[in-house]
Amino acid sequence: MTTFNEFKLSSDILKALNGLGYHEATEVQAQVIPTILNKEDLMVQSKTGSGKTASYGIPVCEQIDWEENKPQALILTPTRELAVQVQEELMHIGRFKRLKVVAVYGKSPFKDQVRELKQKTHIVVGTPGRVLDHIERGTLNLQKIKCVVLDEADEMLKMGFIETVEMIIKMTPSTRQMMLFSATMPNRIKELAQNYLTQPIEIKIESEHVTTELVEHELYPVRMQEKVRLLQDLLTVQNPERCIIFCSTREAVDALYQGLKAKGYPVNRLHGGLEQKDRLDIMRQFKMGRFAYLVATDVAARGIDVSGMTHVFNFDLPEEKDAFVHRIGRAGRAGEKGKAITFVTPFETKWLEEIQNYIGFELPVAERPVATEVEKSRAAFEAKLKAKPKMRMEKRADVNREIMKIYLNGGKKKKLRAIDFVGTILSIEGIEKEDIGIIDIQENVTYIDILNGKGWSVIDGLKTKTIKGKKLKVQKAYN
């Protein structure tokens, strides 16, 4: 196994990786990281769950110049959920380097994104439409872009974004480094690579997540009217720690969600018809363990990384073969074992055949649990339902342990700038510039990350000082 120490990364990046629990590189990381650090273009074919985001996130963060105020890296993703997840991952990786990562995507207030982009920004992650919108309005400056990452290029093609992606690439400096990641390589994606990548290194990682022992498969032939009952029996017997239950339509998700909720299951739902802020909040709660079962459409299958996922249920079969792979990729991640349970009705046998041909093996048919088995398991299942949810720490917890976000009741309206806050904080005894992280100046308030466990020292110090002649209220931020 390759350790991250072998890549000659800076101490700030290694410290963050250690806090995240990243010690040994996955196969894709071991090949991609040195290639990017070597400033070469590359195209990577890799299935979901292979550690792809960190494979480009680590070297991209490593190469960022903190002093530069304009964005140096641009990462394009097909969905808002993936944009937010990539932003969070890169913020964790670049935490001790004090990197500012901004996510821009549709159905989110444009003016809030403009406010963030006006401040020092190192990396921008976004969906193609909103990124292009910012470029055309002059709110996203591409002059200093050193690298462009196309994440899940095949999905961007499928969603009709490729022309927009090409427009964006053409506006970036010709000297930029290009990286293309895709689960599949259709001709249009190969053509894109040929047109915009310079002698790219090609890396193909065979997916192990479909066939390996990490994911155990069970197939249940079932009639449509029996599906809900079978799902309840399997949830009772197998008693998953947490799982995603995939349905084919929003209507199916809503119906199953309402039915399970009415019976007292700890459940929530996720589909494209929900407000963006609600979707992000639901995913955050699911990751933290506030509920155990998430009923979702395929919007949740792409790029969503939830640790401790024991089960995935294909309540409905997907019509597209690769969607099946992305669904089951939610389980068996990062070396953890998982189980993929698939229902098939007589109407879905054609799709099942196509999926089995695509993954290269037949899903093993399992026997349904009998009534006595279900009753025998019921007490343990109901005890778990009644128990207080076991909150899971997000992986950022270790990284953020030495960081405190502080709040000050002054911002742009008081004509305060980052340099004003930095100057005053550095006048506090024992505080150095390495202790000051991201500064987020809003209209009436400012949030500042204080690193290295010095948060309370800064709060105490600021209580006796003025900033640009103004006395501000300062406290630990709890939002």
TrEMBL record:
Question: What reaction does this catalyse?
Answer: ATP + H2O = ADP + phosphate + H(+)
Keyword ATP-binding tagged: yes
Q: Where is this motif: Q motif?
A: 2-30
Question: What general EC class does the enzyme of this chain belong to?
Answer: hydrolase
Tell me the compartments it is located in: Cytoplasm
* UniProt function note: DEAD-box RNA helicase involved in the assembly of the 50S ribosomal subunit. Has an RNA-dependent ATPase activity, which is specific for 23S rRNA, and a 3' to 5' RNA helicase activity that uses the energy of ATP hydrolysis to destabilize and unwind short rRNA duplexes.
Indicate where this protein is primarily found.
Answer: cytoplasm
Q: What is its EC number?
A: 3.6.4.13
Q: Which domain of life is it from?
A: Bacteria
Q: Could you tell me which residue ranges the Helicase ATP-binding domain spans?
A: 33-203
InterPro entries reported in the protein's UniProt record: DbpA/CsdA_RNA-bd_dom (IPR005580), DEAD/DEAH_box_helicase_dom (IPR011545), DEAD/DEAH_RhlB (IPR044742), DEAD_box_RNA_helicase (IPR050079), DEAD_helicase_DbpA (IPR028619), Helicase_ATP-bd (IPR014001), Helicase_C-like (IPR001650), Nucleotide-bd_a/b_plait_sf (IPR012677)
Q: Which Gene3D superfamilies match?
A: 3.30.70.330, P-loop containing nucleotide triphosphate hydrolases
Domain note? Contains an N-terminal domain that binds non-specifically to RNA and a C-terminal domain that binds specifically and tightly to hairpin 92 of 23S rRNA.
Keyword entries, A-Z: ATP-binding, Cytoplasm, Helicase, Hydrolase, Nucleotide-binding, Ribosome biogenesis, RNA-binding
Q: What is the designated name of this protein?
A: ATP-dependent RNA helicase DbpA
| Domain (DEAD-box RNA helicase Q): residue spans on this chain | 2-30
Start and end residues of each Helicase C-terminal domain = 229-376
Q: Name one Pfam family in it.
A: DbpA
Family from the record: Belongs to the DEAD box helicase family. DbpA subfamily.
Molecular function (GO) terms listed? helicase activity
Region entry Involved in 23S rRNA binding, spans: 404-479
Q: Which organism is it from?
A: Turicibacter bilis
Check the record and name the HAMAP family matching this protein.
DEAD_helicase_DbpA
